[in-house]
Amino acid sequence: MNQIRQPSRREAPQASAGAADAPPFAASSLCAFIETLGMASWQKTLQESSAPPVASGDSAPVRRRRKAARPSELVAAALGLFVERGFAATRLDDVAARAGVSKGTLYLYFDSKEALFKSVVEESLVPALAAAEQWLAQYEGSATDSVRELLVGWWVLLGETPLAGMPKLIIAEAGNFPELAKFYHERVIVRGRALMRTVLERGIARGEFRPLDIEIAIDVIFSPILMLLIWRHSMVGMCGYDYAPATYLETHMNLLINGLCADSRTGTAGASAAEGRA
Predict the structure, then answer these.
(1) Can you tell me whether residue 52 is helix, strand or coil?
(2) Cα distance between residue 176 and residue 197, in whole Å
(3) How many other CB atoms are found less than 10 A from the CB of residue 108?
(4) Which of 40, 67, 111, 176 would you call most buried, defined as having the most Cβ atoms within 10 angstroms of its Cβ?
(5) What is the pLDDT of residues 40-53, one digit of tens each?
């Protein structure tokens, strides 16, 4: 079973003194699976989105490589600006400048900010979801391990990249750009919920998890992680402290797994509490 030990680089100031010496995030079989598909290369581009790529010399091969990479560079630049400034405040001129190209070059690939936003989703989040679906279809481990794999894998692949700012971006801009919010919901949220729904249904069918309202459980599972992301992209700079993601996620998963598992005492107590609220 995967254990998370290493806080991220933006560790909370009050973290324990020995945290820096702890081993890194445990290897996730989901992450390893995605790497075998060659689908994790976009992470490097996303991490470098704050600065335009620099070509060495003026050779034709370099120019050809840059031309082939330009759509990804533009998408990465757009993501960085969307997260920093918001969708409405981001200008295409600024996206082009960050990617190191002219605005005319940008229009060769994308005709609008909306097209850029959709490409961010299609080129990064959607492939990761598709790989997770493929991984889950052939995964033979326990439902408990599946939950851990999905949450750890999601954080390692997305939570430590600029994509971590997407939930705050969507929440902030949904009212002004409902079509983009709908697109994000259909392409990302629906598929993410379906992954967790499959895991919970398996766990209940196998007797690993106690019976529960699956749709509400999905919200309860994802909400703390969304809160962590929103906090780190909004309040952390004003409040003077941050949460160590490794500690936060480990705490969340311990509480989650203990609540899900079909222990006779937990199951009885959970059922009684639910009946009392009803």
Answers:
(1) coil
(2) 30
(3) 13
(4) 40
(5) 444 454 445 444 44
